[in-house]
Amino acid sequence: MKRIAILGRGAHTLPTYRALLNSLAAHYSITIYSEVAMTPDWLLLEHSYTIKSIPAGKYPRRIRDFLLLLLVLRDHLKNPFALLHAHSTYPTGLVAILLKTIFKIPVVVALDAAEGSAFPEINFGDLLSKRRAKLNQWVINKASFVTALTNFHRDQVYTNLKITNKISVIPRGVDPDKFSSVTTQKESGNITMLSISYLSPVKDPETLVKAFFLVQQSINCSLIHIGRDYMNNSIHQLVKEMGIEHKVFFKGHLTYEEIPEYYKKADLFLLTSVYESQAVVVAEALAAGIPVLGTHVGLMADLSGKCCITVPPGDYKALAENVLALLKDKERMSTLRENGYAWSRQNNLDTCVTALRNIYDSLIVSK
């Protein structure tokens, strides 16, 4: 098997990425390189590839970058890699391009986050730093092949950075069979809304709660939220202040295996992020046949109108109005459900694996 190095911890710790790599490992000898020391619980996650990480210790950022470079360099000199695949631009993309320059190894850079965006009001996005913006631009333009998760994601990078390299869009697909099994019997007369995201300013849970507050004034409904809390219980407090704590249920962090059961219970899926490169949870909701409403970012922006309904970020009034209108329009709800389900089947995990295999093989052959 051809040897491929995947650079970046996130490639292993994200469930959908791990599923992708496990599928790729059937065709290539894959080694994951982590820019931080892997914890025991991360190592226990099911995987069929080799994992290596820099030594444990509190190192300055530049030392960590150098250690990652040495780790990959050492292994390449012992047994050369046919290709390097970097998870985002820094530090993994930087290390990959340096090795490409020295050894002429083809490099795939997979854009995965806010490489081309900045939101100073919430201190989020790579472009808040001019140095990071220049580094991102250099890495992307030097890569052998660049991927983005959505058209929205790609266009942000093209618009805000001087990119001359082509960026291809490959959504991270999910296994539809994990989410499209028999639907659980729903509570009669109650509309269940589901949202999955960690609580943080970039996910804008205030807009979610405010929209739900307006909706619950008109219909019998409940909201389930799944995800870790990085806002010091402030959203829980907001719910209490609004007097809707009996209708909003915070489940906190759940394992990936536990989540499909909640998709089965939901009538609608809501996501109110300020920014998303994709939002894999949207792909999961579509695979589960749930109508999606949210902000015009990531996959929701790409599929707006056909598979989901979107509003500008922060516009909770418009979101509430669209929720109520959709619940009254059964024909449109059915159309969104059918279109979303079809998209999830056409852009599933196997589709993503095939796309990456085609890229890998073409770059290795032309090497």
Gist?
The chain is an alpha/beta fold and 367 residues long.
Describe, in plain words, how this protein is organized in 3D.
By secondary structure, the protein is of the alpha/beta class. The protein has two domains: 3-173 and 348-366, Rossmann fold, CATH 3.40.50; 176-346, Rossmann fold, CATH 3.40.50. It is 44% helix and 16% strand. The protein is built from 15 helices and 13 strands. It has helices at 10-13, 15-24, 40-43, 61-78, 92-103, 130-142, 151-160, 205-216, 234-242, 260-265, 280-287, 298-303, 316-328, 330-346, 349-366; strands spanning 3-7, 29-34, 50-53, 83-87, 107-110, 145-148, 167-169, 191-196, 221-226, 248-252, 268-271, 292-295, 308-311. The strands form two sheets. Strands 3-2-1-4-5-6-7 form a seven-stranded parallel sheet, with helices on both faces. Helix 4 (61-78) packs across helix 5, helix 8 (205-216) packs parallel to helix 9 and helix 11 (280-287) packs across helix 14. The mean pLDDT is 95.
User: On the 0-100 scale, what is the average pLDDT?
Assistant: 95
Rg measurement, Å: 21 Å
CATH architectural grouping of the largest domain = 3-Layer(aba) Sandwich
What's the CATH H-level superfamily name of the largest domain? Answer: Glycogen Phosphorylase B
Poorly predicted runs are: none
Structural class: alpha/beta
CATH class of the largest domain: Alpha Beta
Count of distinct structural domains: 2
Spatial gap, N to C terminus: 16 Å
What is the CATH third-level topology name of the largest domain?
Rossmann fold
